[in-house]
Model the fold of this input.
Amino acid sequence: MLRALKVSAIFHPAVEFISSLGTILVVGFGGYLAYAEGLQVEDIVAFLLYLSLFYQPITGLANLVENMQQSLAGAERVIDILDAPVEIHDSPDAIDLKDVKGEITFDHVSFSYIDGIPVLNDVSFTCKPGEMLALVGATGVGKTTITELIARFYEPDSGRILIDGHDIKDVNLSSLKQNISMVLQDTFLFNGTIAENIAYARPEATREEIKEAAKAANIDKEIEAMPEGYDTLTGERGVKLSGGQKQRISIARAILRRSPIVILDEATAAVDVETERQIRDAINSLSGKRTIVAIAHRLSTIRSAEQILVIEDGTVVEQGTHEQLIKQNGYYARMNDIQKD
Ligand SMILES: Nc1ncnc2c1ncn2[C@@H]1O[C@H](COP(=O)(O)OP(=O)(O)OP(=O)(O)O)[C@@H](O)[C@H]1O
Ligand SMILES: [Mg+2]
Done:
Protein backbone atom coordinates (compact mmCIF):
# COMPACT_ATOMS: atom_id res chain seq x y z
CA MET A 1 0.00 0.00 0.00
CA LEU A 2 2.78 2.41 0.96
CA ARG A 3 4.61 1.59 -2.24
CA ALA A 4 1.47 2.13 -4.30
CA LEU A 5 0.91 5.48 -2.60
CA LYS A 6 4.53 6.49 -3.25
CA VAL A 7 4.27 5.60 -6.94
CA SER A 8 0.98 7.46 -7.27
CA ALA A 9 2.55 10.44 -5.46
CA ILE A 10 5.14 10.56 -8.24
CA PHE A 11 2.79 9.68 -11.10
CA HIS A 12 0.21 12.45 -10.70
CA PRO A 13 2.66 15.35 -10.21
CA ALA A 14 4.64 14.02 -13.19
CA VAL A 15 1.55 14.13 -15.42
CA GLU A 16 0.79 17.65 -14.16
CA PHE A 17 4.39 18.72 -14.67
CA ILE A 18 4.62 17.50 -18.23
CA SER A 19 1.33 19.16 -19.18
CA SER A 20 2.53 22.44 -17.62
CA LEU A 21 5.66 22.18 -19.73
CA GLY A 22 3.39 22.31 -22.79
CA THR A 23 1.88 25.58 -21.58
CA ILE A 24 5.33 27.08 -21.06
CA LEU A 25 6.32 25.93 -24.55
CA VAL A 26 3.27 27.53 -26.15
CA VAL A 27 3.69 30.80 -24.24
CA GLY A 28 7.45 30.90 -24.89
CA PHE A 29 7.46 29.88 -28.56
CA GLY A 30 4.22 31.79 -29.25
CA GLY A 31 5.72 34.88 -27.59
CA TYR A 32 8.77 34.57 -29.78
CA LEU A 33 6.65 34.21 -32.95
CA ALA A 34 4.50 37.21 -31.95
CA TYR A 35 7.64 39.25 -31.43
CA ALA A 36 9.63 38.09 -34.46
CA GLU A 37 7.03 37.25 -37.07
CA GLY A 38 3.97 39.18 -36.01
CA LEU A 39 1.77 36.28 -34.89
CA GLN A 40 -1.61 37.55 -33.56
CA VAL A 41 -2.03 37.49 -29.75
CA GLU A 42 -5.57 36.06 -30.20
CA ASP A 43 -4.03 33.05 -31.93
CA ILE A 44 -1.77 32.40 -28.96
CA VAL A 45 -4.70 32.67 -26.53
CA ALA A 46 -6.75 30.32 -28.72
CA PHE A 47 -3.85 27.88 -28.73
CA LEU A 48 -3.64 27.95 -24.93
CA LEU A 49 -7.35 27.16 -24.72
CA TYR A 50 -6.97 24.29 -27.19
CA LEU A 51 -4.13 23.01 -25.07
CA SER A 52 -6.26 22.73 -21.91
CA LEU A 53 -8.95 20.94 -23.95
CA PHE A 54 -6.27 18.56 -25.14
CA TYR A 55 -4.93 17.80 -21.65
CA GLN A 56 -8.24 17.03 -19.97
CA PRO A 57 -8.70 13.64 -21.67
CA ILE A 58 -5.04 12.80 -21.14
CA THR A 59 -5.27 13.35 -17.38
CA GLY A 60 -8.53 11.38 -17.45
CA LEU A 61 -6.79 8.55 -19.21
CA ALA A 62 -3.99 8.53 -16.66
CA ASN A 63 -6.52 8.29 -13.83
CA LEU A 64 -8.36 5.55 -15.67
CA VAL A 65 -5.21 3.45 -15.95
CA GLU A 66 -4.59 3.82 -12.24
CA ASN A 67 -8.16 2.88 -11.31
CA MET A 68 -8.00 -0.11 -13.62
CA GLN A 69 -4.84 -1.37 -11.94
CA GLN A 70 -6.49 -1.05 -8.54
CA SER A 71 -9.60 -2.89 -9.65
CA LEU A 72 -7.54 -5.66 -11.22
CA ALA A 73 -5.62 -6.16 -7.97
CA GLY A 74 -8.94 -6.33 -6.06
CA ALA A 75 -10.49 -8.68 -8.61
CA GLU A 76 -7.53 -11.02 -8.30
CA ARG A 77 -8.16 -11.41 -4.57
CA VAL A 78 -11.90 -11.89 -5.03
CA ILE A 79 -11.28 -14.54 -7.68
CA ASP A 80 -8.83 -16.28 -5.34
CA ILE A 81 -11.61 -16.61 -2.79
CA LEU A 82 -14.19 -17.71 -5.37
CA ASP A 83 -11.76 -20.29 -6.72
CA ALA A 84 -10.87 -21.73 -3.30
CA PRO A 85 -11.80 -25.41 -3.33
CA VAL A 86 -14.82 -26.27 -1.18
CA GLU A 87 -13.87 -29.03 1.21
CA ILE A 88 -17.33 -29.88 2.43
CA HIS A 89 -19.82 -31.02 -0.19
CA ASP A 90 -23.36 -32.25 -0.16
CA SER A 91 -23.35 -35.99 -0.58
CA PRO A 92 -25.04 -37.02 -3.84
CA ASP A 93 -28.15 -38.36 -2.11
CA ALA A 94 -28.31 -35.68 0.59
CA ILE A 95 -31.68 -35.26 2.22
CA ASP A 96 -33.39 -32.06 3.37
CA LEU A 97 -33.78 -31.64 7.12
CA LYS A 98 -37.48 -31.02 7.68
CA ASP A 99 -39.49 -30.22 10.81
CA VAL A 100 -36.39 -30.37 12.93
CA LYS A 101 -37.03 -31.05 16.60
CA GLY A 102 -33.47 -30.27 17.57
CA GLU A 103 -31.95 -33.44 19.01
CA ILE A 104 -28.16 -33.34 18.75
CA THR A 105 -26.01 -36.43 19.21
CA PHE A 106 -22.24 -36.73 19.16
CA ASP A 107 -21.25 -40.35 18.69
CA HIS A 108 -17.56 -40.92 19.54
CA VAL A 109 -16.43 -37.84 17.63
CA SER A 110 -12.72 -37.13 17.21
CA PHE A 111 -11.38 -34.18 15.30
CA SER A 112 -8.16 -32.35 14.51
CA TYR A 113 -7.56 -29.18 12.49
CA ILE A 114 -4.02 -30.26 11.69
CA ASP A 115 -3.09 -33.93 11.29
CA GLY A 116 -1.40 -35.27 14.40
CA ILE A 117 -2.67 -32.54 16.72
CA PRO A 118 -5.99 -33.86 18.07
CA VAL A 119 -8.42 -31.21 19.29
CA LEU A 120 -11.41 -33.41 20.16
CA ASN A 121 -11.00 -36.95 21.32
CA ASP A 122 -13.92 -39.39 21.50
CA VAL A 123 -16.62 -36.89 22.46
CA SER A 124 -20.09 -38.39 22.98
CA PHE A 125 -23.28 -36.79 24.26
CA THR A 126 -26.95 -36.45 23.43
CA CYS A 127 -28.94 -33.28 23.82
CA LYS A 128 -32.71 -33.72 23.65
CA PRO A 129 -35.00 -31.32 21.77
CA GLY A 130 -35.64 -28.11 23.69
CA GLU A 131 -32.89 -28.80 26.18
CA MET A 132 -29.99 -26.56 26.99
CA LEU A 133 -26.54 -28.08 26.72
CA ALA A 134 -23.73 -26.09 28.27
CA LEU A 135 -20.06 -26.50 27.44
CA VAL A 136 -17.58 -25.29 29.99
CA GLY A 137 -13.84 -25.64 30.31
CA ALA A 138 -10.61 -23.70 30.16
CA THR A 139 -9.67 -21.67 27.12
CA GLY A 140 -8.54 -23.61 24.04
CA VAL A 141 -9.99 -26.99 25.06
CA GLY A 142 -12.28 -27.25 22.01
CA LYS A 143 -15.65 -25.75 22.98
CA THR A 144 -16.02 -23.55 19.92
CA THR A 145 -14.79 -26.46 17.80
CA ILE A 146 -17.69 -28.62 19.01
CA THR A 147 -20.21 -25.97 17.91
CA GLU A 148 -18.48 -25.59 14.55
CA LEU A 149 -18.78 -29.33 13.97
CA ILE A 150 -22.54 -29.19 14.66
CA ALA A 151 -22.89 -26.62 11.86
CA ARG A 152 -20.55 -28.74 9.72
CA PHE A 153 -17.90 -26.08 9.14
CA TYR A 154 -15.54 -29.03 9.48
CA GLU A 155 -15.86 -32.79 9.10
CA PRO A 156 -15.02 -35.01 12.11
CA ASP A 157 -12.06 -37.38 11.61
CA SER A 158 -14.06 -40.22 13.10
CA GLY A 159 -17.43 -40.69 14.73
CA ARG A 160 -20.81 -39.30 13.76
CA ILE A 161 -22.83 -36.20 14.49
CA LEU A 162 -26.59 -36.67 14.30
CA ILE A 163 -29.42 -34.19 14.26
CA ASP A 164 -32.81 -35.79 14.91
CA GLY A 165 -31.10 -39.09 14.16
CA HIS A 166 -29.78 -38.05 10.72
CA ASP A 167 -26.03 -38.08 10.23
CA ILE A 168 -25.28 -34.50 9.18
CA LYS A 169 -23.02 -35.89 6.47
CA ASP A 170 -26.14 -37.10 4.66
CA VAL A 171 -27.98 -33.82 5.06
CA ASN A 172 -28.18 -31.06 2.54
CA LEU A 173 -25.86 -28.28 3.83
CA SER A 174 -28.22 -25.38 3.23
CA SER A 175 -31.08 -27.10 5.04
CA LEU A 176 -28.71 -27.87 7.93
CA LYS A 177 -27.64 -24.24 8.20
CA GLN A 178 -31.21 -23.01 7.99
CA ASN A 179 -31.96 -24.88 11.19
CA ILE A 180 -29.03 -23.52 13.21
CA SER A 181 -28.57 -19.98 14.48
CA MET A 182 -25.18 -19.07 15.82
CA VAL A 183 -24.20 -16.23 18.10
CA LEU A 184 -20.48 -16.26 17.55
CA GLN A 185 -17.71 -15.55 20.01
CA ASP A 186 -16.82 -12.45 18.02
CA THR A 187 -20.13 -10.94 16.99
CA PHE A 188 -20.37 -9.59 13.49
CA LEU A 189 -22.45 -6.55 12.71
CA PHE A 190 -22.28 -4.86 9.36
CA ASN A 191 -22.55 -1.15 8.67
CA GLY A 192 -26.27 -0.47 8.58
CA THR A 193 -29.13 0.27 10.93
CA ILE A 194 -29.80 -1.78 14.05
CA ALA A 195 -33.07 -3.01 12.54
CA GLU A 196 -31.28 -4.21 9.40
CA ASN A 197 -28.70 -5.98 11.52
CA ILE A 198 -31.33 -7.83 13.55
CA ALA A 199 -33.32 -8.75 10.45
CA TYR A 200 -30.23 -9.94 8.61
CA ALA A 201 -31.32 -13.57 8.42
CA ARG A 202 -34.97 -12.70 7.69
CA PRO A 203 -35.01 -9.48 5.66
CA GLU A 204 -38.78 -9.77 5.24
CA ALA A 205 -39.38 -9.50 9.00
CA THR A 206 -41.70 -6.68 10.02
CA ARG A 207 -40.69 -3.92 12.43
CA GLU A 208 -42.98 -5.53 15.02
CA GLU A 209 -41.16 -8.87 14.77
CA ILE A 210 -37.80 -7.09 15.03
CA LYS A 211 -38.95 -5.29 18.17
CA GLU A 212 -40.20 -8.54 19.65
CA ALA A 213 -36.84 -10.21 19.08
CA ALA A 214 -35.04 -7.21 20.57
CA LYS A 215 -37.30 -7.42 23.57
CA ALA A 216 -36.60 -11.12 24.07
CA ALA A 217 -32.86 -10.37 23.87
CA ASN A 218 -33.25 -7.58 26.47
CA ILE A 219 -31.91 -4.85 24.21
CA ASP A 220 -35.18 -3.10 23.26
CA LYS A 221 -35.02 -0.38 25.93
CA GLU A 222 -31.47 0.58 25.05
CA ILE A 223 -32.32 0.77 21.35
CA GLU A 224 -35.39 2.89 22.01
CA ALA A 225 -33.30 5.26 24.14
CA MET A 226 -31.04 5.98 21.18
CA PRO A 227 -31.93 9.19 19.29
CA GLU A 228 -32.83 7.33 16.11
CA GLY A 229 -34.05 4.14 17.75
CA TYR A 230 -34.01 1.13 15.44
CA ASP A 231 -32.72 3.30 12.59
CA THR A 232 -29.50 4.11 14.44
CA LEU A 233 -26.48 3.31 12.31
CA THR A 234 -24.13 0.79 13.90
CA GLY A 235 -20.96 1.88 12.11
CA GLU A 236 -18.48 -0.42 10.41
CA ARG A 237 -18.51 -3.73 12.35
CA GLY A 238 -20.74 -2.12 14.96
CA VAL A 239 -18.06 0.23 16.33
CA LYS A 240 -20.68 2.60 17.69
CA LEU A 241 -22.08 -0.02 20.08
CA SER A 242 -20.67 -1.56 23.23
CA GLY A 243 -19.55 -5.19 23.31
CA GLY A 244 -22.57 -6.20 25.40
CA GLN A 245 -24.98 -4.41 23.07
CA LYS A 246 -23.47 -6.10 20.03
CA GLN A 247 -23.84 -9.49 21.68
CA ARG A 248 -27.48 -8.91 22.52
CA ILE A 249 -28.18 -7.65 18.99
CA SER A 250 -26.77 -10.89 17.64
CA ILE A 251 -28.89 -12.82 20.13
CA ALA A 252 -31.92 -10.90 18.83
CA ARG A 253 -30.84 -11.85 15.31
CA ALA A 254 -30.70 -15.52 16.33
CA ILE A 255 -34.10 -15.29 18.04
CA LEU A 256 -35.69 -13.72 14.96
CA ARG A 257 -34.50 -16.62 12.80
CA ARG A 258 -36.68 -18.99 14.82
CA SER A 259 -34.42 -21.91 14.07
CA PRO A 260 -34.83 -24.97 16.27
CA ILE A 261 -31.14 -25.04 17.26
CA VAL A 262 -29.40 -22.01 18.73
CA ILE A 263 -25.70 -21.92 19.47
CA LEU A 264 -24.46 -19.26 21.85
CA ASP A 265 -20.71 -19.03 22.04
CA GLU A 266 -19.74 -17.24 25.18
CA ALA A 267 -22.44 -14.66 24.68
CA THR A 268 -21.78 -13.15 28.07
CA ALA A 269 -18.02 -12.66 28.16
CA ALA A 270 -18.01 -8.92 27.51
CA VAL A 271 -20.77 -7.74 29.82
CA ASP A 272 -21.23 -6.68 33.43
CA VAL A 273 -23.11 -8.69 36.03
CA GLU A 274 -26.43 -6.87 35.47
CA THR A 275 -26.32 -7.32 31.68
CA GLU A 276 -25.26 -10.92 32.17
CA ARG A 277 -28.43 -11.43 34.16
CA GLN A 278 -30.46 -9.87 31.34
CA ILE A 279 -28.84 -12.14 28.79
CA ARG A 280 -29.51 -15.11 31.02
CA ASP A 281 -33.17 -14.08 31.03
CA ALA A 282 -33.03 -13.81 27.24
CA ILE A 283 -31.61 -17.31 26.98
CA ASN A 284 -34.14 -18.62 29.46
CA SER A 285 -36.97 -17.13 27.41
CA LEU A 286 -35.76 -19.34 24.57
CA SER A 287 -35.35 -22.48 26.61
CA GLY A 288 -37.88 -25.19 26.19
CA LYS A 289 -38.68 -23.95 22.67
CA ARG A 290 -35.26 -24.42 21.09
CA THR A 291 -32.29 -26.64 21.63
CA ILE A 292 -29.58 -24.38 22.99
CA VAL A 293 -25.89 -25.14 22.98
CA ALA A 294 -24.29 -22.51 25.19
CA ILE A 295 -20.66 -21.88 25.93
CA ALA A 296 -20.03 -19.70 28.95
CA HIS A 297 -17.16 -18.84 31.18
CA ARG A 298 -19.56 -17.43 33.77
CA LEU A 299 -21.16 -20.51 35.26
CA SER A 300 -24.15 -18.54 36.57
CA THR A 301 -25.32 -18.10 32.96
CA ILE A 302 -25.73 -21.82 32.40
CA ARG A 303 -26.77 -22.99 35.86
CA SER A 304 -30.23 -23.99 34.65
CA ALA A 305 -28.90 -26.10 31.76
CA GLU A 306 -30.31 -29.63 31.58
CA GLN A 307 -26.84 -30.92 30.82
CA ILE A 308 -23.42 -29.43 31.48
CA LEU A 309 -20.31 -30.89 29.85
CA VAL A 310 -16.91 -30.05 31.28
CA ILE A 311 -14.32 -30.32 28.53
CA GLU A 312 -10.66 -30.85 29.23
CA ASP A 313 -8.05 -31.55 26.56
CA GLY A 314 -10.72 -32.31 23.99
CA THR A 315 -12.60 -34.89 26.03
CA VAL A 316 -15.64 -34.76 28.25
CA VAL A 317 -14.41 -35.16 31.83
CA GLU A 318 -17.60 -34.31 33.73
CA GLN A 319 -21.22 -34.48 32.66
CA GLY A 320 -24.47 -33.71 34.47
CA THR A 321 -26.67 -30.99 35.88
CA HIS A 322 -25.38 -28.19 38.09
CA GLU A 323 -26.35 -30.07 41.27
CA GLN A 324 -24.81 -33.36 40.11
CA LEU A 325 -21.54 -31.68 39.14
CA ILE A 326 -21.32 -29.82 42.44
CA LYS A 327 -21.69 -33.20 44.19
CA GLN A 328 -18.91 -34.70 42.06
CA ASN A 329 -16.58 -32.08 43.52
CA GLY A 330 -14.35 -31.84 40.45
CA TYR A 331 -13.41 -29.05 38.02
CA TYR A 332 -16.92 -27.61 37.85
CA ALA A 333 -17.32 -27.47 41.62
CA ARG A 334 -13.92 -25.80 41.92
CA MET A 335 -14.78 -23.19 39.28
CA ASN A 336 -18.13 -22.61 40.92
CA ASP A 337 -16.40 -21.92 44.26
CA ILE A 338 -13.98 -19.47 42.66
CA GLN A 339 -16.76 -17.60 40.88
CA LYS A 340 -19.05 -17.39 43.88
CA ASP A 341 -17.20 -14.34 45.29
N1 LIG B 1 -8.94 -22.96 12.44
C1 LIG B 1 -8.08 -23.56 13.26
N2 LIG B 1 -6.95 -24.13 12.77
C2 LIG B 1 -6.08 -24.76 13.60
N3 LIG B 1 -6.24 -24.87 14.93
C3 LIG B 1 -7.33 -24.33 15.47
C4 LIG B 1 -8.31 -23.64 14.67
N4 LIG B 1 -9.30 -23.21 15.48
C5 LIG B 1 -8.95 -23.59 16.72
N5 LIG B 1 -7.78 -24.27 16.72
C6 LIG B 1 -7.14 -24.90 17.91
O1 LIG B 1 -8.05 -25.85 18.46
C7 LIG B 1 -8.06 -25.80 19.86
C8 LIG B 1 -9.48 -25.62 20.37
O2 LIG B 1 -9.95 -24.33 19.95
P1 LIG B 1 -11.39 -23.80 20.33
O3 LIG B 1 -11.58 -22.53 19.60
O4 LIG B 1 -12.39 -24.87 20.10
O5 LIG B 1 -11.23 -23.52 21.89
P2 LIG B 1 -12.32 -22.97 22.92
O6 LIG B 1 -12.56 -24.05 23.91
O7 LIG B 1 -13.48 -22.42 22.21
O8 LIG B 1 -11.50 -21.79 23.65
P3 LIG B 1 -12.03 -20.39 24.20
O9 LIG B 1 -12.65 -20.67 25.53
O10 LIG B 1 -10.80 -19.57 24.34
O11 LIG B 1 -12.98 -19.84 23.20
C9 LIG B 1 -7.10 -24.70 20.26
O12 LIG B 1 -5.90 -25.30 20.68
C10 LIG B 1 -6.89 -23.90 19.02
O13 LIG B 1 -5.57 -23.41 18.96
MG1 LIG C 1 -14.21 -20.48 21.85
Notes: Strands lie at 104-111, 120-127, 132-136, 158-163, 166-167, 180-183, 261-265, 291-295, 307-312, 315-320. The mean pLDDT is 88.
